[in-house]
Amino acid sequence: MAHPEPPKDARAMRRAVLGDAYVDAAVRDQRPAVAEFQDYITETAWGVWARAGALSPRDRSLLVLAMTAALGRMEEFRTHATAAPRAGVTQREIDELPFQIAAYCGVPAGNAARRCLTEVANRSADEV
Q1: For residue 22, what pLDDT is reported?
Q2: Start and end of every Carboxymuconolactone decarboxylase-like domain (predicted)?
Q3: What is the pTM of this model?
Q4: Are 52 and 3 in contact (CB under 8 A)?
Q5: In terms of C-beta density within 10 A (0-12 exposed, 13-18 middle, 19 or more buried), how is residue 123 classed?
Q6: Residues 47 and 3 grouped into a single domain
Q7: Phi-psi category of 51—alpha, beta or left, where left has phi over 0 and alpha has psi -120 to 50?
Q8: 85 torsion bin: left (phi>0), alpha (psi -120 to 50), beta (else)
Q9: What is the reported pLDDT for 6?
Q10: Average pLDDT of every residue of the chain
Q11: Cβ contacts of residue 99 below 8 Å, gap of 6+?
């Protein structure tokens, strides 16, 4: 079933997963090219998250984590690792990720993911 307002649904999904503070910071710069790029990211990447389909937000979160780790995009991995619990990913699933990443993407990618997950966990513990 198609969503009646895909851009609106994509914006809502982005905020639900990444949080208002992250999205507000990302869209703060209102220069036309930057604003247009943020709209593009929201409508394409988050439009996929918001569409109907067999994958849940949890599934999509795990896939994004695996793909960003495989590509070595650790800044994006960190963003999604921080947001993963809001998408329904459990701590046990997050702890298991580096094993899968190391097995299929190589030990350096698994090590980088583990370091990043540790940083995210430590930062979260400091905020409590």
Answers
A1: 94
A2: 36-119
A3: 0.88
A4: yes
A5: exposed
A6: yes
A7: beta
A8: alpha
A9: 67
A10: 93
A11: 110
